Amino acid sequence: MRPEVDQRLSELMRKALAGDEAAYGTFLREIAGVVRAVARRRLNSGGGIDPEDIVQETLLAIHLKRHTWRASEKIGPWVYAITRYKIVDAYRRRGQQVTIDIDTIIDTLESEPPKDAPSEREITLALEGLTGGQKQVVKSISVDGRSIRETAQNLGMKETAVRVALHRGLNAIAARFGKRT
Amino acid sequence: MKTDELINALAADAGRQKRPVEVVLDWSTLAACIAAAVIFVLTIGPRPDISEAATTGRFLFKFVVTAGLAASAFWVLLRLSRPGALRRGDWGLLLIAPVLLLLAVLAEFISVPQAQWAATATGQNSLNCLTWIPLFSIAPLALLLPALRHGAPTRPALAGAVTGLLAAGIGATFYAANCTDDSPLFVVTWYPIGIAFVVGVASVIATFIARW
User: Fold this and answer.
1) Each residue of B114-172: pLDDT tens digit?
2) Hey, of A85, A144, A166, A179, which one would you mutate to test binding to chain B, going by the most B CBs within 10 A of its CB?
């Protein structure tokens, strides 16, 4: 990651950690492009792994493990390490071993946009497995694009309850990701 | 769900955060030391002649090795629990305690007559050593593995092994305060067996619980 890009993304993440949702959204969208480029390159001969699944699982991991990034450090190596882990883990779940050296190619990668997606992603399966309340809340905020407040009004819940359900729902999705039964 | 839709949900969840992993590891390690200390005092406790023993270099050197091992494992664990944080030189830290011990073994070969080497290495407490080091490591391990889970180890088995090394380093430090065999020849013969057992168990457990 070029130094100026790393600085900009680190700054966004610092704001995000201070609770700035808009900065966090921008950060995640940029990171998605970078992770997508890595995943596509690594999954060319992919063994049936959809790069966009890797992107989504990596974003979830970044979100749930963001307390393992130190604000004083570069964010690029942290993001790449998580991406690498998620790719290796996806292969492992399919019973394959891979070794991945992302560092050598990373500086040349440009951020890439998503392709039109098949609807049956891993994450959709994980979402469908949630309990009723969590599923409603996560769907409302993600797919329907509603805010916390709108979701609370819509579902007749308190905002704090919506936040809790969202947080637990995201945790549950991450735990179920890729574990089809 | 599309990726942009997922990002909507993640951004809305920005406000909820967990404690930094270093903080959790710090407190867990402190708790692990206290737990091991309590169990140590309630079971075998320190050897009766500890105040005399504490004036001898051989006795004190055991703690240099065991506590040094725990300290270096703690440092490496901090790195292993954060993605991309490990530096190449970190592994060298884990060699410090073993190298010191091997140097002490060489010194012992010089200061102890060859006829006594075997008896000194065998000692009186080998079975105790093999039993108590793992037993004193159980509570530390039970406190440290959840802390590892709180982190994000990109190599779970390895991070688990280092967690085991930390737990065993703590356990061995307390055991050493009871053991009356102080020669580096005894330490190098028996301690590594008990410690290796804990490392192996911790590594296997971590491959199941420390994935994320």
Assistant:
1) 999 999 999 999 999 999 999 999 999 999 999 999 999 999 999 999 999 999 999 99
2) A85
Q: Which residues are within 8 A (CB) of B132 and not within 5 positions of it... i.e. 6 or more apart? A: B43, B44, B171, B175, B178, B194
In DSSP notation, chain B reads: --HHHHHHHHHHTTT--PPPHHHHHHHHHHHHHHHHHHHHHHTT-S-TTHHHHTTSHHHHHHHHHHHHHHHHHHHHHHHHTSTT---TTHHHHHHHHHHHHHHHHHHHHHHS-GGGHHHHHH-S-HHHHHHHHHHHHHHHHHHHHHHHHHS--SSHHHHHHHHHHHHHHHHHHHHHHH-----HHHHHHHHHHHHHHHHHHHHHHHHHHS--
Binary contact (B212, A56; C-beta < 8 A): no
Structure tokens at B151: 């982190």
ipTM: 0.91
* pTM, rounded to two decimals: 0.92
Q: Which of residues 90-109 of A touch B (CB under 8 A)?
A: none
Q: Say how many C-beta atoms besides its own lie within 10 A of residue A85's C-beta.
A: 23
